[in-house]
Every structure is written in structure tokens, then in C-alpha cells.
Design a protein that fits this description.
The complex is a heterodimer. By secondary structure, chain A is an all-alpha fold. Chain A is 75% helix and 1% strand. In chain A, helix 6 runs antiparallel to helix 7 and helix 11 packs parallel to helix 14. The termini of chain B are far apart. Chain B has 2 domains: 94 residues, Helix Hairpins (Orthogonal Bundle), CATH 1.10.287; 84 residues, no CATH class. The chains are: A mainly alpha, B mainly alpha.
């Protein structure tokens, strides 16, 4: 039984999704418990597997017992090492917290589609987990499409605007996934296998690595994954898709999807093509890290120019993608360690930011930056968490953001990739501008009348936030004009904007604590990552 | 010219892919974009299927009769070479035709049209076995992998076709939602309705 635990990581959310489909459409109340239970099983399995990996080294799991025969992979193989073990834990953890946090939002924003949201969320998570764990290049494509299809539907569940963004995402996502499939096809023609280790072995043994078709395969795979992760010039689909989607979808997808794609890119780089080939033989480290630097700067400046909170978050995600792509391509151990550590840290940071912004938008009914005005008095705990994540985004110790930037900058300096280092520092400064402005709004400004009018302009979303408050806190029983909901500095004891219920607040506190813990225990985590990287040729 | 013919399948798939990509990027109508997407995906499926095809190769199913076929056709491959060439692109089928031809010699009541319509593996096996016995070729039990086509690309594409169909289904239902929301499936029309300010 114990040796079947690795596959439970994927099967638990997959069967959870099917179970919600069978029961949830009839009995609404079982959706949430099933989702939490299956993600909990998945998280437990991921933790257990990671513990086994730490004790015994990388684990292999052969689906349906199709073990290797004659030195070749016969069936699909799952492989868990230190790196994807950590990524698996991160995915299951983030998904669990996100589902718990979004519970009340789902029933408010998409009341008619509650079971569907849970089904699709669980399928999305099982696709992401599967992509991370699988060692088979074609299986990777199938799981990528499972997660993509669920995410298209999850985004389109929202307003008509979100359906349009979902359509653009379908087009871009299909191009990206098709390029990946084509690249895998080129590798398959040359090597005759789909198992990542076997592909790598064949490329190395037969000197195929120098064939032009392998370079074409690398290019196709990279472009496909860059489209899917939203690297700066290819990010067009991302901001609209995430910001117009229902907030539960944004909270689930924002932290996970791009990070998993970056992990897949790193996996392809280290396990399939091999570090020696990429860093030594190909002279691509400079151009790609330059591309990443452009992505960082472009994303940061687009973020600082946004007035909409959720759009701003989406552009911050775009900037962070540049961090990790650049770290993976600077060409040394420090850069790669920083990139993988940042995958973990950034998933938590993005989750925390989506939590805070989701709470603020739900409570004030406003999407603009000025929604933060005076919130410290009404929501002290939420705002404390916001300060923690702001410090992490800027990169101040002892949060995890500092240590990932430390590794990335060290890697950049060692490799002499100065544009990347400069871009990282500029991005930190831009983040400081963005977040200190919001912190100033929250701590030192009181809401002015101007925001109340702007509030009226956002009538539709305001109604949602308003409704959420009714159901969540039951403070007001009659529809009251929106202005009454503004925090009045004289009345802050009785102000109607209050802390959110514990179901929303507890995940936020946990993730903020994790940001600090991941920072404090950074040496342990990076030692695990370095162990994993040593296993693949660093 | 030779290079053109040798790489014919690759050229076709790239041309189809570019047609699809062009439609996805430049067409204004959302359904036409999806048509482009389908062409794009089909091009990749064509690419995979073409790499799995092999001149004069058999379906890779290992059973006793098939082993005989593999051995027997070793000898007959040359005589039917020109026939095989006329069936370019359907190598697996060509192989079955050959098997049928031999079987027809033994069973004269079988018309060739009937054989052409029975391409499935199950029907092939008995014919082939009989043919092997008639010709007296029992062959060695060794299996020459070069005589079989690689099944993996086809199996992969079965999955990819399913994925493509589901993508198209999801995309069409999203288009329906867009149409419900905006009353149009023309992109510029929808963008006009959204206005320049809210579109980021």
C-alpha cells in the first residue's frame, strides 16, 4: 500500500472531481468537503512521498506496473525527486488553502455554478500535479491539456468579459500546447522514446544532441512553454484572463499555473536536454536571460501603471515569471537554485496577494488602488499579512523574497549577466513603489468622498461584495446605499467594513506565516534543491 | 526535387500549420479562428501519423499467425514493390492488400472489393495464416522489428485527437457565451462594445 502513495497525489483530486460531479450536482453541501478532503489526501501523499525521497533518494512509480523492460521505458513513469517533491507539496498546499479561502466567494460570485467550480478546480489541480510528477513527455502534454481545458472553463464561468478573455486564452493556450507537442514529436523521431531520462540518455549516447532537429525541438518546447507561462512579450492572454475571472479562479490559477509551467521548463532543461548542452554548447544563456530581463522590467512597469488592483497583480506575475526564467538561464547552480526556490516563494506570495486583494475587493466593492485607504483600522490582521507579503515582494529579510533574490542576484553576478541583475534591482524598486503606496493608503489615509463616487461606477462588482458581506457577517439586513459602507474615521469601532470571517482569514494568516518560515528555513530548502540538482548533472 | 519528395509530409504539415496560425491570428470571426485552430492541430496530428508510417510494414500485433506473415512477406516484398508504391501514404493498408491478394488465390470466392473493405486486424489474421500455410513458408519464429510499423505515434495521436475535440468543444461553448454576452462573434464588434478604456 505504501508504495502506491505517489500516485495518490494525482488520483485524489482527480477522483475528488469525479465524486463532486456524481454527488455535488444533487447535494450542494458535499462539494466543499469533498474538495478539501481530496486536496488534503493529495497534500498528505505529497508530504509522505517527499519524506521518502529525502530518506531514500528519488522515487520512481510505474503506472499500472509497466516496469522498464530491456533498458527502455514501456509505460508511463512518475518520478519524484527533491525538486518536484517540493513543487508537488507547494501545489497541493496552495490549492487547499485557496479552496478553503474561496468558499464563501464561490457561492456569492457564481451561485449557479458551485459544483462546476469545484469539479474544474480539482481537475485543474490534478492536471498541474500530474505535469509536475510525470516523467513521460507525451503524458506531460495530455496533463497540460487537462489543466488548460479546466482553466478555460473556470475563467469563462464569470462575466461576459471573462468569457472573451477565456477565448483568447484558448487560442494562445492551444498554440502553446501544440508547440510543446510538436517539440516532443521531434525528440521522439530522433530518440524513439518518450521517457525523459531515456530521451536524455539517447541524446547523449548517440551524439544526437548536435543534430539541428534537437535545437528545433528545444526551440518549439521553449516557445510553447513561454506562451503558457506568460513570459513578457507572450503574456497577452494572462492579465485579462486572471483579472476578469471569478476571484476564486484567479486565486487558484494565479499562484499555480505559471509556476508549474516554469517548473516544466526547468524539468525539460535539466532532465531532457541536459545542463551541459544548454549552458556550454548552446550560446543561448545570454539572449534568454536578456529576454527575461526585458520581461522583468516590462512587467514591473506595466504593474506600476495599473489602477486596477487585480490587473496590477497580474502584471506582477508577469514580472516574476521573468525572475524565474532568467534564474534558470543565467547558467549556474546559484541561478537555478534561486529560480526553483522562487517558484515556491512566489507561489505563496502570489497566493497571499490574491487573498488580500480578494478580501479588499469583496469588502469595499472596489477594484482600484484607493480601495486600500484607511483599511488598517478596519482590518488590522489582513493588513499585517499584506505588509508581510509586501516586504516579501520587495525582497526584504527575513521573508522568502529576500533569499530568492539573493540567489538570483548571486547567480547573475557569477555568470556576468549584468542586465539581469540590474533588472532584478529595478524590479525591487518598482515593487517598493507599488507596495509602499498601498501601505501608505492603508495606514495613513482615510477614505475620501472621491472614492465613494468611484465606488458607484463599479456597481456590478460592488453588489457582489455587498452581498458577500451580508451572507458572511450578517451585519446589515436591508440594502443600504453604498456610501454607508465606507469606513468613517470617527466611527471606526462600529464601522461596517470589518475583518472577514475566519474561513477566509485563517488561510491568509497561514500563508503569511509560511512566507516568513520559508525565508527563515531557506538554507534547508535550498539544500534540498541543491541535492535534487546534483542528481541531474549540476 | 528529391529533397522535396522525401520531405513531402513535413512540408505539408508546415504549410497546414501556417494556414491555421494565420487564421487564428488574422481572422475577425471567432468561429473562423477556431477553424484555424483545428487546422493547426490537425497539421500536428498529420505530422505524427506520417512519422509512424513505413513502406510495406505490418501492423505490430504479436500473435502466431502474424509471425508467419512477417516471415513470408520477407520473400514477397520485392515482387509487390511497385504495387506498394501506388498506395503511397497507406503503407499499413498496402500490406493488408498484399495479404488479401494471396488469400484470394486460395479462396477464389473472395472478391477484391470485399478485401479492400476489410482492413481490420482481426480479419487479416486468418487470411494471412492460410496464405502462410499454402505457400509452405513457415518462417523462423524470429521477429524482425523493421517489418512492423511503429504504433506509438498513432496511439499518441488517438489521445491528441480526443484532446483536440475537447478543446474545440470547450472553445465553441465559450464562443456561445461570448455571443450571449455581446450579441456578436465578430472580434472588432465586441472590442467596440468593450471600449478602449477597460481593455487592457
Amino acid at each position: 500500500m505504501a508504495d502506491q502513495i505517489p500516485v495518490l497525489i494525482i488520483l485524489a483530486p482527480l477522483f475528488g472531481g469525479i465524486l463532486v460531479l456524481l454527488l455535488g450536482l444533487r447535494y450542494r453541501s458535499v462539494c466543499f468537503p469533498i474538495a478539501v478532503a481530496s486536496l488534503g489526501v493529495s497534500l498528505f501523499s505529497a508530504l509522505h512521498t517527499f519524506r521518502t525521497v529525502l530518506l531514500e533518494g528519488p522515487q520512481r512509480y510505474f503506472l499500472s506496473g509497466w516496469e522498464r523492460g530491456g533498458g527502455f521505458a514501456v509505460g508511463i513513469e512518475y518520478r519524484i525527486d527533491q525538486i518536484n517533491g517540493l513543487v508537488l507539496i507547494m501545489i497541493a498546499f496552495v490549492a487547499l488553502l485557496s479552496v478553503i479561502h474561496s468558499r464563501s466567494r464561490v457561492s456569492v460570485e457564481t451561485p449557479a455554478k458551485v459544483p462546476q467550480v469545484y469539479i474544474l478546480s480539482l481537475l485543474l489541480v490534478s492536471g498541474l500535479l500530474g505535469m509536475t510528477i510525470t516523467n513521460d513527455a507525451f503524458n506531460l502534454y495530455v496533463l497540460l491539456e487537462i489543466s488548460s481545458l479546466s482553466s478555460y472553463a473556470l475563467i469563462a464561468i464569470g462575466s461576459r468579459r471573462s468569457a472573451l478573455s477565456a477565448f483568447n486564452y484558448v487560442i494562445m493556450g492551444t498554440i502553446g500546447a501544440s508547440f510543446l507537442l510538436l517539440g516532443v514529436g521531434y525528440l521522439f523521431i530522433q530518440t524513439g522514446t518518450l521517457n525523459m531520462q531515456d530521451i536524455h540518455g539517447a541524446l547523449m549516447a548517440e551524439g544526437l544532441i548536435n543534430a539541428p532537429s534537437i535545437k528545433v525541438a528545444l526551440m518549439l518546447i521553449l516557445i510553447g512553454l513561454w506562451i503558457k507561462m506568460g513570459l513578457f512579450p507572450l503574456h497577452g492572454w494572462l492579465p485579462n484572463a486572471y483579472s476578469y475571472a471569478p476571484s476564486a479562479t484567479g486565486t487558484l490559477m494565479g499562484p499555480l499555473v505559471t509556476k508549474v509551467m516554469i517548473y516544466i521548463m526547468i524539468r525539460m532543461m535539466v532532465s531532457v536536454f541536459g545542463i551541459d548542452f544548454l549552458y556550454e554548447q548552446l550560446a543561448w544563456t545570454k539572449p534568454v536571460s536578456l529576454l527575461a530581463s526585458i520581461a522583468i522590467i516590462g512587467g514591473s512597469f506595466l504593474a506600476v501603471s495599473q489602477t486596477d488592483l487585480r490587473k496590477m497583480l497580474c502584471y506582477l506575475i508577469v514580472a516574476e515569471v521573468g525572475y524565474m526564467v532568467g534564474g534558470a538561464w543565467v547558467g549556474n547552480l546559484n541561478g537555478m537554485t534561486g529560480a526553483i526556490y522562487h517558484i515556491l516563494g512566489d507561489a505563496l506570495m502570489t497566493l497571499c496577494l490574491f487573498f488580500v486583494v480578494g478580501i479588499v475587493v469583496a469588502k469595499t466593492g472596489e477594484h482600484r488602488l484607493s480601495a486600500f485607504k484607511g483599511l488598517f483600522k478596519s482590518m488590522p490582521l489582513t493588513m499585517v499579512c499584506f505588509v508581510v507579503v509586501a516586504l516579501a515582494m520587495i525582497g526584504l529579510p527575513p521573508t522568502c523574497g529576500f533569499f530568492s533574490k539573493w540567489y538570483l542576484v548571486r547567480g547573475g553576478l557569477e555568470a556576468g549577466q549584468y542586465p539581469f541583475v540590474i533588472a532584478l534591482l529595478i524590479s525591487s524598486l518598482v515593487n517598493a513603489v507599488i507596495f509602499f503606496r498601498l501601505i501608505e493608503f492603508a495606514y495613513f489615509q482615510s477614505p475620501d468622498s472621491d472614492t465613494a463616487e468611484a465606488h458607484g461606477a463599479h456597481g456590478e462588482s460592488g453588489a457582489h461584495g455587498d452581498e458577500g458581506e451580508h451572507s458572511a457577517t450578517a451585519h446589515a439586513h436591508t440594502p443600504v446605499p453604498m456610501k454607508v459602507y465606507r469606513v468613517d474615521p470617527d466611527l471606526d469601532a462600529d464601522s461596517i467594513i470589518t475583518e472577514v470571517p475566519w474561513g477566509m482569514k485563517a488561510p491568509l494568516l497561514i500563508v503569511a506565516a509560511c512566507l516568513l518560515l520559508l525565508g527563515i528555513f531557506n538554507s534547508t530548502v535550498t539544500a534540498w534543491i541543491a541535492d535534487g540538482l546534483k542528481g541531474v548533472g549540476f | 526535387m528529391d529533397a522535396f519528395l522525401e520531405n513531402f509530409n513535413y512540408i505539408v504539415y508546415v504549410v497546414l500549420m501556417m494556414i491555421g496560425l494565420y487564421a487564428m491570428i488574422s481572422k475577425n470571426n471567432l468561429i473562423k479562428k477556431l477553424v484555424g485552430m483545428t487546422i493547426f492541430q490537425s497539421a500536428i496530428i498529420l505530422f505524427y501519423v506520417s512519422i509512424g508510417a513505413k513502406e510495406g510494414a505490418a501492423i505490430p500485433i504479436l500473435d502466431h499467425h502474424q509471425m508467419h506473415v512477417a516471415a513470408a512477406h520477407d520473400d514477397h516484398a520485392d515482387t509487390h514493390k511497385d504495387k506498394a508504391d501506388t498506395h503511397e501514404g497507406e503503407h499499413a493498408d498496402t500490406k493488408i492488400h498484399k495479404a488479401d491478394k494471396h488469400a484470394a488465390g486460395a479462396h477464389s470466392n473472395h472478391t477484391s472489393a470485399e478485401h479492400a473493405s476489410t482492413h481490420t486486424d482481426k480479419l487479416e489474421a486468418p487470411h494471412a495464416g492460410e496464405h502462410g500455410d499454402h505457400d509452405g513458408h513457415h518462417g523462423s519464429s524470429e521477429i524482425n522489428p523493421a517489418k512492423f510499423s511503429n504504433p506509438i505515434p498513432h496511439v499518441l495521436m488517438l489521445t491528441a485527437i480526443v484532446v483536440g475535440v475537447s478543446t474545440l468543444g470547450v472553445a465553441l461553448s465559450i464562443v456561445q457565451r461570448v455571443h450571449q454576452g455581446y450579441g456578436s462573434i465578430e472580434e472588432d464588434d465586441i472590442l467596440n462594445q468593450i471600449g478602449p478604456n477597460t481593455d487592457g
